[in-house]
Design goal:
375 residues, Rossmann fold, seven-stranded mixed β-sheet
Length: 375
């Protein structure tokens, strides 16, 4: 759902929202300039700063990984595509999906244990199925699983056994999708009768270190390296921050009843503004180590900057030294449905209703998305 989403243009120099209505007010840019896609500075900062646009991100799927994918196609092998249901929008990546086009896929919606116990598994599976159909993937089976709870691992084994006649099985997934943990749990449930040994080696025609796990005399599981997603906080933030933002146990939803012009500061790394609409409940799904702070929109910039400066919130990242380092996006709902707003690699907010205008702030380079709710 992108038709109602618009990016709020902000000055990369001072962080104010750009506008063309009043030259005397902060953030002014002439109207004909503001229409352009390459505007980064307000008129004041343009006169005092030299700015160069962000460097383009490197591709998610490298040439080495494409060589591996081509080998999978040549073998007519099966792919177990592991996605993280908590960070679904981050791990179900368009570049990975394009690379896997035409292959036989078993999709594992992993980390089901992180979602609240009240989560409807059927609804979640339908949500994933809809995304799969939109991407045109040849998914033979969708399995909602948890390696931590050993949930539906036997179902995965049964599906893999049904494809054994096709030969090898390749596990593919984004970094932090839980792919390797899933394989370890699977092997604990699997009676291995082969005399072959588990090895790690460089895959032919690549520089990728791939673990080869024999499950019979003729069939091998290949655990491929996790693919780094370049617009996810999991790939951009430092390790100390990733440890805070990646949940290790069931998420405890935090609900705030908000009036228009109220804001929730998400640690020192993101922000959610309720710009306009009736009194509404917003439920935040983030790891418990992330501090949420309520504020009025008028005070949000100052509060956010102060908490970072005095280290009074968690997490704090080198990516964000203040609000000037956040990109802003805004959208309006037009249907009485339940929606999710997601930050790639961080978490999501759920709410219901039409006529709600929300503004989402994310560290520069981190993608946001909004969809009908998955839970």
């Amino acid at each position: 759902m992108t038709e109602n989403l618009k990016k709020i243009k902000k000055c990369y120099g001072c962080g104010v929202i750009l506008q063309s209505a009043n030259e005397e007010e902060v953030g002014y840019v002439p109207a004909n300039v503001l229409k352009r896609d390459d505007v980064f500075l307000c008129q004041r900062c343009f006169k005092t700063h030299h700015y160069s646009a962000d460097k383009l991100h490197s591709p998610v799927v490298t040439l080495d990984f494409m060589n591996l994918i081509n080998d999978i196609k040549a073998k007519n092998a099966v792919v177990v595509y592991v996605v993280d249901v908590f960070n679904f929008e981050s791990s179900f990546n368009p570049e990975i999906n394009k690379a896997l086009s035409g292959l036989d896929i078993i999709l594992v919606a992993n980390k089901f244990d992180l979602l609240p116990k009240s989560t409807n598994e059927t609804k979640l599976k339908d949500y994933v199925a809809d995304k799969v159909e939109r991407e045109g993937l040849n998914v033979k089976k969708i399995i909602v699983a948890s390696s931590t709870r050993n949930y539906n691992i036997d179902e995965l084994l049964e599906e893999m056994a049904a494809f054994h006649k096709k030969g090898d099985v390749y596990f593919i997934g984004a970094v932090s999708s839980g792919k390797s943990s899933l394989i370890k749990t699977l092997l604990r449930n699997f009676k291995n009768e082969t005399s072959r040994y588990i090895t790690t080696s460089i895959y032919p025609n690549t520089t990728l270190a791939v673990q080869e796990i024999p499950i019979s005399e003729t069939t091998t599981i290949y655990d491929t390296p996790g693919i780094a997603i370049n617009n996810s906080l999991l790939g951009l933030a430092e390790k100390e921050v990733v440890k805070v933002i990646v949940p290790r146990k069931e998420i405890k939803p935090r609900t705030y009843q908000l009036l228009a012009k109220q804001s929730i500061l998400i640690g020192g790394i993101a922000r959610f503004d309720y710009v306009d609409g009736p009194f509404t409940g917003f439920t935040f799904y983030f790891a418990e180590g992330i501090k949420l702070t309520r504020s009025h929109v008028k005070l949000a910039d100052k509060s956010f900057n102060n908490m970072i400066a005095h280290k009074k919130t968690q997490p704090i990242s080198y990516l964000v030294t203040g609000v000037q380092d956040l990109d802003a996006f805004e959208f309006t709902t037009y249907e009485d449905k339940k929606y999710d707003v997601s930050w790639n690699g961080l978490g999501f907010v759920s709410f219901k209703g039409n006529g709600r205008v929300v503004r989402i702030y994310a560290p520069r380079g981190v993608a946001i998305s909004y969809n009908e709710s998955k839970i």
